[in-house]
Amino acid sequence: MRRRHLCVALAGVERIERWRGEWDPVMSAAVPAHVTVVYPEEITDEALLIERAEQYCATSGPFRLALGEVRAVDDGRDGVFVAVDDMEGGWARLRAQLLAPPLRPLDMLAHVTLAHPRTSGRGPLCWAELAGRYAGDVVRVAELLQTETVYWQGRPPEFVVLRRIALNGGAGDGR
User: Fold this and answer.
1) Residue 75 phi, psi dihedral angles, 5° rounding
2) 95 near 61, Cβ under 8 Å?
3) Residue 82, strand partner residues
4) How far apart are CA 141 and CA 91, in angstroms?
5) Which of 33, 36, 50 is nearest to 103 (CA)?
């Protein structure tokens, strides 16, 4: 299975990387900590998406996201994640621009996955251990990544960055 995303990689999030390494070592080893901007299920026209991303990034500057509380779906059986707060509205503006029709936005909250059911059966244990904890980091988003993750039967996923698109326009608020 191949899945293409538009995401932002997170740097300097040691606590989150430790949690990911402990609770989902397969995914942690293959895919860096990130927040998905556009999911494969939202993409109806990949060329249009990339064109929009390049146009948006040429006129928009970096923005900040706050990494907050650890949360879970179905007591961790369907995943454990860190909630992401859109501090300045940059995330909402980005998604609104990229996912205008004919693309189809899903109702997905911004998050950083700690334990994914595709690669870890430890979600319930992760949730029992980390429920209510806060990451407490603020990250600066300065570029978008177009990525592809390939999932192989019985092997770790392969993660490839296909394209980097810098947020280099405007002043932005992402100090």
Assistant:
1) 55, 30
2) no
3) 70, 112
4) 9
5) 50
pLDDT, residue 151, reads 85
User: CA torsion, points 78, 95, 19, 24, in degrees to nearest 10?
Assistant: 50
Over the stretch 74-124, which tens digit does the pLDDT of each residue have? 999 999 999 999 999 999 999 999 999 999 999 989 999 999 998 999 999
Handedness of CA 119, 123, 126, 130 (dihedral sign): positive
CB 120, CB 26: distance < 8 Å: yes
Q: DSSP letters of 91-128? A: HHHHHHHHT-TTS-------EEEEE-TTT-S-HHHHHH
Query: What pTM was computed for the model?
Result: 0.91
Are 80 and 72 within 8 A, CB to CB?
A: yes
Kindly give, in sequence order, each residue whose CB lies less than 8 Å from that of residue 75, ignoring residues fewer than 6 positions away: 124, 127
Q: For tokens 């950083």, what's the residue?
A: 112
What 3-state DSSP class applies to 32? coil
